[in-house]
């Protein structure tokens, strides 16, 4: 005896399947998310797993071939070599300095855009903030390289006051990074300011709160998650960048060491070991940002 479902024409089976799928929302989400989640799992997590695994390999000192045996030599070299510790400290210090600088610069700009500027002025300011992001990253860094070079525009300007430019140094790296990532700090803080109801300012004024008190006890706690969200961008982008330090600095940073060992020196295991350092630093930073509510502001 033939079942009822098998006697249906193909079009009827198709309609029944679509109707059943329509009634099951979890099945719809599973079908919708399967391709991107699968791609994320295979390409991103798979490559990350291989990276972590290769950190435990090492180079044959005679043939310079990668030996696929378990070893902690790379981690020992990373910890015991004082040069590596200096590079890590330098990179983290610059990343924190860039984050703090962008916070100080972004606060007044975002406040003016969200609370003071008219719609027309706000649109112009948005264009000014986003316009640098439309230009090529390398073009902006090379422009700063020309500005910071010996005998360049900055040297000429500071020479009028009897001063000298920083040249290619850690200070130059800090300046360029602060410029590059400033929009990534302005936009989250602007969104945080915009979400604060105006009635809170009125209530604070009615209770006798002055401007500084209102900012410290009302505005700052509410906008702190947005600040933490913006700091994730500035800190992580500085931590992993290797192009800017190559062009405007003389000292090595984490990204430079990883790039040189992976490409020039062909020491992939040590590059993978060094790559674990920013991953670990960012994991700690994200935990702190989560406690501050950064993910609620994204």
Outline the secondary-structure elements.
Blueprint: H1 4-7, H2 10-23, H3 25-54, E1 58-59, E2 66-67, H4 73-80, H5 82-116, H6 119-134, H7 137-148, H8 153-159, H9 170-194, H10 198-206, H11 211-240, H12 243-248, H13 254-264, H14 268-291, H15 294-297
Antiparallel strand pairs: 1-2
Helix pairs in contact: 3-14, 5-9, 5-11, 6-9, 9-11, 11-14, 13-14
Total of domains: 2
Shape by Cα distribution: globular
What structural category arises from helix and sheet content? mainly alpha
**CATH H level, superfamily name of the largest domain:** MetI-like
How does this structure look, described?
This protein has two domains: 4-54, no CATH class; 81-297, Orthogonal Bundle (MetI-like fold), CATH 1.10.3720. It has 15 helices and two strands. The chain has helices spanning 4-7, 10-23, 25-54, 73-80, 82-116, 119-134, 137-148, 153-159, 170-194, 198-206, 211-240, 243-248, 254-264, 268-291, 294-297, and strands at 58-59, 66-67. A hairpin with a 6-residue loop joins strand 1 (58-59) and strand 2 (66-67). Helix 6 (119-134) packs antiparallel against helix 9 (170-194). The mean pLDDT is 83.
Structural key phrases:
298 residues; 2 domains; 2 strands
Offer a concise description of the structure.
With 298 residues, this protein is mainly α. It has 15 helices and two strands. A two-stranded antiparallel sheet has the order 1-2.
């Amino acid at each position: 005896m033939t079942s009822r479902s098998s006697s249906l024409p193909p079009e009827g089976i198709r309609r029944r399947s679509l109707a059943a799928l329509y009634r099951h929302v979890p099945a719809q989400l599973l079908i919708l998310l399967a391709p991107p989640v699968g791609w994320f799992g295979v390409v991103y997590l798979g490559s990350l797993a291989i990276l972590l695994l290769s950190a435990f390999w090492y180079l044959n000192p005679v043939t310079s071939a990668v030996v696929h045996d378990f070893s902690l030599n790379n981690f020992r070299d990373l910890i015991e070599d004082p040069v590596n510790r200096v590079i890590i400290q330098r990179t983290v210090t610059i990343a924190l300095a860039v984050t703090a600088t962008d916070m100080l610069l972004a606060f007044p700009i975002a406040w003016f855009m969200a609370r003071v500027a008219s719609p027309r002025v706000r649109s112009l300011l948005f264009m000014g903030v986003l316009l640098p992001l439309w230009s090529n990253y390398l073009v902006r860094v090379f422009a700063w390289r020309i500005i910071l070079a010996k005998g360049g525009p900055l040297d000429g300007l500071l020479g009028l006051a009897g001063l000298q430019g920083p040249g290619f140094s850690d200070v130059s790296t800090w300046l360029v990074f602060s410029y590059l990532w400033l929009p990534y700090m302005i936009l989250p803080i602007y969104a945080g300011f915009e979400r604060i109801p105006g009635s809170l300012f009125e209530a604070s004024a009615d209770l006798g709160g002055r401007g500084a008190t209102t900012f410290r006890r009302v505005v700052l706690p509410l906008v702190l998650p947005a600040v933490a969200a913006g700091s994730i961008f500035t800190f992580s982008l500085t931590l992993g960048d290797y192009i800017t330090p190559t062009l405007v600095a003389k000292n090595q940073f984490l990204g430079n060491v990883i790039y040189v060992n992976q490409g020039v020196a062909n020491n992939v295991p040590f590059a993978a070991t060094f790559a674990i350092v920013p991953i670990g630093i960012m994991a700690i930073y994200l935990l702190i940002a989560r406690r501050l509510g950064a993910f609620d502001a994204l």
